[in-house]
Structure prediction request, 309 residues.
Amino acid sequence: MTDSKPNIYIVGHTKPDLDAIASAVGFQKYKEGIGEYNYQAIRCDRVNAQTEWVFKQYNTHLPEYIPNISGMNVVLVDHSFSESRAKGWENANILEVIDHHDVKLEDIIPQSITIRPCGSTATLVAQKIFNPNVLISKNISMILLSAILDDTLGFKSPTTIKLDIEIANRLNEICKIQDLWEYSLLLFQKKDIWNTLSPSEIIEEDIRNIEINGNWFSISQVETLNNRELKKEEILKELIHLNEINPLNLRLVMLTDLLKGNCILLVVGKDIPLLEKELNSKVIDNTLFLPNVVSRKKQILPILQKIYT
Ligand SMILES: [Mn+2]
Prediction:
């Protein structure tokens, strides 16, 4: 060990999910494993109930909360888009990016970029860990495995690739979970807290604002074990209200059912006819039922890209 004071901080996106937090922590452990002790995982926002549960369960402290990364040396994990970056990123020195999303880096030139279109960033971090075969504790393995299972929806998301399953199985050699699907259901339950949230909190919890050629959208993702139980009418009322104050081309809320693998899509905005035309189906009461749709990135975003490009 040369210097124990961290001078490089690893940070996930705002409104972090388990993958964002687990990847930051996992990457710190990887760096420590190869003898680089100057990295520290941080978080820039509050964590969700599932992340809290997982870290408590596996006796690991959540990364320190640092909302503004101005002036810091940073590694971005689980995001590259400027909209998802921590406050102050414009004045941060972004050294490295590790992500599994589409890349948007025009404004920065990191020294190192690891981007692969796999199911979770935790997969890429664990792959680094396994490469020189760094030793990690069972607790850290559990956290990384949980993140992979959550982000890939227990391997059922169409974003899942072979690498995710391979890496998860390798982690499970340490974790020894009997049934990964059953464990995934337990993880999903921990974030299925929607009925304790207000309609506006439900819409904001996991929202992505997207621009395509001057057209603006928002897509909120609500992952639940029973999408029929959510207060659809109230969410819709709030969505309509939001669009009156600040009209977007489309405001979408995905009520994703993780058990049945389908989606009730709530839709508001002037471009509903374009969406109907593209999907060749009618939006009734601002609602569309989409069988076999669970992924915002792989299944909803491409529809919008088709309409507007
Ligand atoms: Mn992720």
About this structure: The radius of gyration is 20 Å. Residues 194-308 form a domain with the Diaminopimelate Epimerase; Chain A, domain 1 fold (CATH 3.10.310.20). The pocket of manganese (II) ion is lined by residues 19, 78, 100, 120-121, 151 (CB under 6 Å).
